[in-house]
Amino acid sequence: MKINTSKLGLLLLSFPLSLGAISVSAEANPTNSSAVPFTENPASITEISSENQLKAIATDPIAQNVTSVSQLSDVRPTDWAFTALQSLVERYGCIAGYPDRTFRGKQATSRYEFAAGLNACLDKINEIISAGLADKVSKEDLATLQKLQEEFASELATLRGRVDALDAKTAKLEAQQFSTTTKLSGEAIFSVSGATGANPNNGGTNTNIVFNNRVRLNLLTSFSGKDLLITGLQATNISSLAAPLGYTDPLGSSSNVRLGFENQFLNFNPSNSNTTAANSVNLYKLLYIFPVADKLTLFAGSSAEVSDAFPAISPFASEGQGSISRFGQGLNAATRVSGGTSGTGLAAAVGFIWNPSDQVDFRALYGSVNPAIATSSSTTLLGAGFFGGSTIAAAQLTLKPTSNLDIGLNYANSYHQINILGTGLASADINAISGAGTALTDPIKLNSIGSTLTWRITPKIAFNLSGAWIFANLTNKDASTTFTSWMTGFQFSDVFKEGNTVGLIFGQPLARNAVGGIASIPNGFTATPYQLEGYFNFKLSKNISVTPGVFFVFNPEGINNAPTATVGVLRTTFTF
């Protein structure tokens, strides 16, 4: 190819032009192996990665602000092409540089990248001529452009055709898109599970192998780019293994033997005592989050849970990727109290998030179970009204003193219309304060404290420790019970393959620890329960993971001489 010594030809033909330096382009990767070599016989444009093709036609608003060659930090007056580059920048305006104000003139380029740059200069010069300023373009430069157009006719035609095709596709997407403000995310869980170690004193039997599912679709809407409206839909048919084993409460909502992705209430709404069919679609999340100041964010929603507001410190907390058991998720009982993790969006809540620094995060909320119901009735066991029914005020202080240490401190103050805890962790949740003279219909007051610590010993090994205390008192009788729970474990990341995780967990599920007044620990329930769990979550692809796991509950529900309950799970999770 003959080299023309005009200012325009000198730079465009003799200078190894950088794609990012053209005003219509964004930053390109100089080491991209998919780039086509600059040869006389170029390969098809399909050999350039689609990412680079898009970059070749993308407009970078930052790059277009360069109006003088002196603004390009890596160009010096002593450079051999300085004068030619100065003309292109200041006379024709078709060179802009990268967003970091560099030109990168020594960077190699392909024929198609060169053609993209040529096309940019052609467009700029056509604009000058169309504006009646043809005298600003020298005849020598026009002659050079004509030769370049002939030399790169094939590449220019291909690029322009691709631009037209992309324009058409973009117009179609804009016309057919669901929403300009809303994104859809989803998760589908399929599980195969079974359990042994039934309680013979309660008519329990070992379970059959069951196949269940839970599907969630979340619409994430932002109106300002800083706020977020979460609308969540859910359908599930996961029935608890605890009931047939004989380890559950009278309502079937709470047990030591619960799966991590199992909702606390299946096909039953405790707010109004209504029932629904399995796999019916329900609204489980409706929450709006919006900033009001630099370090302050507010949130409000009619279907929410404590776990929506408080960051999970536990590495096992993901229902689709983490622990296979409810207890093993690592959310301490102070977080779960009052249906804080029911999986059904049990309460309406308002609250705030305050981030005074990167090391401190403080959040608090007030929640009410039945704010939409005006008057209590026989079917509204949890009361009615935003302030008159069962309520919770909760807070979490999250501290990050170092980059590898997270600490969460929880407090919750709850009032329930009936004698329940609402954690879903143990059968003692229902008729929580037991003894002669106590009843399910007795109102109860709870003060719950908890803490969680995660220490990332190495980038691939995390240690977790958590504990909780619930101090429960009946409001109309002299009866109190203290509940305790603790858990510890290790998570190992990137096992055999990047993205895989292994979890080993041991701890004491929620159990009655001490009583006062007329309260007592039921006869035959004085043993201390313990749980041991192991799981392996491995990635089949970016969006599919499979998790085999097993957990053992010793002395389940604190029953003296009860056989060890064994639960095996194979969970497959699809995310999209």
Rg of Cα set: 32 Å
Can you list the strand order of the major beta sheet?
Answer: 1-2-3-6-7-8-9-10-11-12-13-14-15-16-17-18
Give the termini separation. 50 Å
What's the tally of helices?
Answer: 9
Overall pLDDT metric: 82
Shape: elongated
How do the helices and strands follow one another from N- to C-terminus?
A: HHHHHHEEEHEEEEHHEEEEEEEEEEE
Instruction: Tell me the fraction of residues in β-strands, as a range.
Output: 25-35%
Uncertain segments: 1-64
Category by helix and strand content: alpha+beta
DSSP E strands, number: 18
How much helix is in the residues? 10-25%
Sheet of most strands:
16 strands, antiparallel, barrel
Explain what the structure shows:
This protein is of the alpha+beta class and 576 residues long. Helices cover 17% and strands 34% of the residues. It contains nine helices and 18 strands. The strands form two sheets. A 16-stranded antiparallel β-barrel has the order 1-2-3-6-7-8-9-10-11-12-13-14-15-16-17-18. Strands 4-5 form a two-stranded antiparallel sheet. A hairpin with a 2-residue loop joins strand 10 (391-402) and strand 11 (405-416). Helix 1 packs across helix 3. The model is unreliable at 1-64 (pLDDT under 50).
